[in-house]
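Action item from last week, closing it out:
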Amino acid sequence: MASLNVIREASCAEGFCSLGCIAWLYRKIRGSFFLIVGSHTCQYFMQSALSVMIFSEPRFATAIIEESDLAAKTADFAHLELDRIVGDIVREYDPTIVFLVGTCPAEIIKVDLQNIGEMLTQKYARPVMFAPVSGLEHTFTQGEDGVLQALLAISPEEAPGAPRELLLVGAVGDLVEDEILEQLAELGIPVRGVLPARDPRRLPAIGPNTVAVALQPYLSMTLNALKRRGAEVLSCRTPLGPAATRQFYETICRAFGKEPPADLATLEAEAWERIGPEREILIGKRIAVVGDNLLELPIANLLCEMGAEIVELSTPYFNRKAMAADVACLPEGLTLYEKPDVIAQAERVIALKPDLTICGLGLANPFESRGLPTKWSIEFTFTPIHGFKHAKDLAEIIARPVRRGRLMAQRGWYVDRPAAARATS
């Protein structure tokens, strides 16, 4: 394993709320409805972040906790109000599953959504599941972890004597999921299913003959829950980029007693050939990876494999055990900042003057104003980037701002700020 120097600055999280995961999960889990139990702030965030979807009747809503609710008997009041709201949802949408999404306000005032969900499940004859998606200690991608735990709670038990099969854990686009399943079929790997399943009525069974592998690096709580159900959890690299994807499939093959075929090396070589132009742009570039979606380590690995130098690396949350396979491939002696102090980090990056900074939206404009090219880390969350076929898309996202800066300079469109002004800003 790489010698990684971890510095935990323990600053406040600088990123989107965990409710952001609903943006991709309500479409991924068909027939679902997400009822957010939170404040006006929760509602404003969802409306502003996902307003483009409002006119398509998105299957999520907010049950707002008012100040007057705090004076009521919280348990009785919440049960009655949520009973009424869930009843309206069932009549209008007829969902196959309803998620009661716990938020910071609901957690602070101790609304027992777990117990309420169990009672409403019996009344409405469909799962009404508590999904802990509080943003108090989590970044926005980790909200998915809470939803998957809720699904895991209603997944069936594995039948006695069930064959040993693979479970894919983590939400990716349907196209990416189909490509991964197709590749696993070609490798002869028996697959039990995917969590989250597209149809929540057909969740995969879990038990001792389940071999789970994560498609995303931010699902540590779900993986721990799978272990408690007796499943085996593989330590694999996140399949982002040609080399990581090959190693991902090789680890799975070995877990099922199969020798990885030479075809995987061929697929890797073809993927590297496709991203040759982007590799030429990024080779030798100094890059700061200070994103907010927990994809920072696998992206840093890809950049190093493409010949770039990582000058600053941080992540909102670091689980050494869950991310062990990605950590093992990082360069020796690299420093990782966990929950970085945003001011101190901004000062470090400005002083380093990297060729590209991958960061959250909150830091992008300050860096751009100082002549530092940036790439929004949120783009990696909403773009298909997993596997061999999408390595080109991933490399293009990273290389685009560097290519744009080069073209602007060639055409005389880019005017750099004076060094003195940059130093005093």
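Closing note: Residues 165-265 form a domain with the Rossmann fold fold (CATH 3.40.50.1980).
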